[in-house]
Amino acid sequence: MAGEPQDDCLFCKIVGGHVPATVVRETDTTLAFRDINPQAPTHVLVIPKAHYENAAALAAAAPELAADVLRETRAVAQDEQLDSYRTVFNTGSGAGQTVWPAHAHVIGGRGLEWPPG
Questions:
Q1: 114 belongs to a structural domain
Q2: Domain that holds residue 44
Q3: What is the spatial distance between Cα 6 and Cα 61, in angstroms, rounded to a whole number?
Q4: Residue 81 vs residues 66, 67, 72, 109, 113: alpha-carbon distances, Å
Q5: How many domains does the chain have?
Q6: Which residues are part of the catalytic machinery?
């Protein structure tokens, strides 16, 4: 069920404290932690504490929670003292989503080319 923790979900396990992560920020509704395979000097994931398959499902079912995630991407960038950064939501495998709950990437600390990938 959308929003409910999933037993087989890595991010749900991180939220539940069953899998370690390097947490950089936490609110009542979100958790931000360093990516284990960083693509830049700063690469932090911001996730909702509720489980949604992807960003589109999150936005449709819980727009206020999607806004919380987006607000936290800004807070992470400020905490990391990034003058410029990229916020990325991958939705679907064709877009590069490899972990299925919704999450945002905060990427910065180096020049980022456009178009990406």
A1: no
A2: 10-108
A3: 17
A4: 23, 21, 14, 9, 20
A5: 1
A6: 103
Per-residue pLDDT tens over the stretch 53-81: 999 999 999 999 999 999 999 999 999 99
Residue located via tokens 């180096």: 110
The residue type of 34 is R
Upstream peptide bond of 115 is cis (omega within 30 degrees of 0): yes
CATH number for 98:
3.30.428.10
Tokens for 76?
A: 């992470």
For residue 3, is pLDDT > 80? no
In single-letter form, the type of residue at position 18 comes to: H
Amino acid found at 38: P
Rounded-to-integer distance, Cα 83 and Cα 86, Å: 11
